[in-house]
Design brief:
Blueprint: H1 2-14, E1 40-44, E2 47-51, E3 62-66, E4 71-75, E5 87-91, E6 94-98, E7 109-113, E8 118-122, E9 134-138, E10 141-145, E11 156-160, E12 165-169, E13 181-185, E14 188-192, E15 203-207, E16 212-216, E17 228-232, E18 235-239, E19 250-253, E20 270-273, E21 278-280, E22 284-285, E23 293-298, E24 301-304, E25 314-316, E26 321-327, E27 335-342, E28 345-353, E29 360-363, E30 368-370, E31 374-375, E32 383-388, E33 391-394, E34 404-406, E35 411-417, E36 425-432, E37 435-443, E38 454-455, E39 458-459, H2 462-467, H3 473-484, H4 490-510, H5 514-536, H6 539-563
Helix pairs in contact: 3-5
Amino acid sequence: MKKLILIAVALLVSCSDSRSPYGTWTQKADFGGKARNSAVGFSISGKGYIGLGYDGSYSKDFWEYDSTQNTWTQKADFGGVARNSAVGFSIGGKGYVGTGYNGIYNKDFWEYNPALNTWKQKADFRGAARDSAVGFSIGNKGYIGTGSSGSYCKDFWEYDPVKNIWKKKADFKGAARSSAVGFSTNNKGYIGTGYDGSYYKDFWEFDPVKNIWERKADFGGTARYGAVGFSIGTKRYIGTGYDSVLVRDFWAFDPGGISKSPKQFTFDDQMNVAPRTTVKSNTITVSGIDAAVPVSITSGKYSINGGEYTSDDGTVKNRDTITVQLTSSDSSNIMSSAKLTIGDVSAAFNVTTQFIFTDQTKVALNTAITSNTIKVFGFNGAVPVSVTGGKYSVNGGVYTSADGTVNDGDTITVQLFSSENNSTTVSAKLTVGKISDNFDVTTKEAPGSGDDIFVGGKKCFVATAAFDSPMADQVEILRQLRDKYLVTNDFGRKFVAWYYRNSPVVANYIKDKSLAKTAVRAALYPLIGFSWLLFAGYLPSMMVGLLLCMFLFFLFRIKRLNAN
């Protein structure tokens, strides 16, 4: 354990060393105090300092390492209570230690003067008392953030040693966490990895001038907590830690290799979409960039990480998710596109409306009927085409029912024969790729149907003539009998056809004879009454009542005959 702590001190001292990180390891003098974990350390003027921690009990001793003499010297004990998991950093020749845990969370903050070997309490840390936070210095300011105070934290604070005040800065942009790794170099701070019930590997850069966080490329190793991080020159280093097992891998990050060109992404085209429909794409994840890059869209909207859809230009970061949305065309068989651009990479989201055949009604019986022309859109290369219930023609060619192929831009018409019966619908179903639609054709009504028989230039049939108006209630009841029951079966349709062939003569005869009209009305009322009972739902009850009366009649008659 002492050797491990010595390595940590050597790393701290090397933060100001511009030599290459590659070379050999040389064992140095063991740490002067007891073996421990969760200690705190920093470097000042080429010397390293380690103290506090946990060795079965909380510690507060403090030690200085002289790399020239390879010796450890015990210094004045830490000024606060013993603890572990505190944070430490140095500013302007002095060291600073604060927060930590000793059965309770702490927020006191202390300054160490190596020249006087003294500790002086400074203004308490302004955030919640906590442990396992991240601390580092940039220029003449110190910074503390993240950690655990009973719940995980993401607040971030700046300390000014001259004014002895704390100032809240922009919250850490990653998830709240503890036991992350943090360090600074080139006037920027860095925080990554950590734990909040899950392990993390994201990596973030803090700009103190702009007071902003920017996500960088994720840590190259496994997600973990309790790692060690430091910087040498322009490179940053992270290693060791725990990712469900103890790990010892070691990684370097070069910010000079920032990539702003994401990996190519694609959207899945959608077809057979209803016109005037809002359609959402599959979700893509941004990858391959180390810094935020611009995002824009044409002819649609986009949503980042499930947020509100917008058409405004914005920025995205590595691992952000994006969904595109557009509205399909008002017309059938038309492709609409939205183009999303991230950095210098673009992809289109294509939506094609289903082709629609215009149904035809009141067509002649047993006649070849041709559909409107549809155009093939939104396909790359040849796609299969097939038809059931009819034939199709491509680009004005011969009609066929055999399966075939079509290409983008081809035109198609469908043809079928109408029914031999009146008021009957037949269909042909055309399928192109995965898109399909029916072409429906309905034959005209039977002759005279719809009050279209004319006698003497006027609409006329027997019931209309008998009741003096086609709007009479009695005529409407008979009309419903015809439409709902008679024309729905072969026998009824034949009767209607016979009736309309012969009714004009009768209607013309009675139209100006009141006695004849009265007789016809009398003859029609039983049928009208029957129809009314049928429509009103009373007919079954009436039939049951009639049968019951007949049964009782015969029963009493038999009794009377037996009595005689």
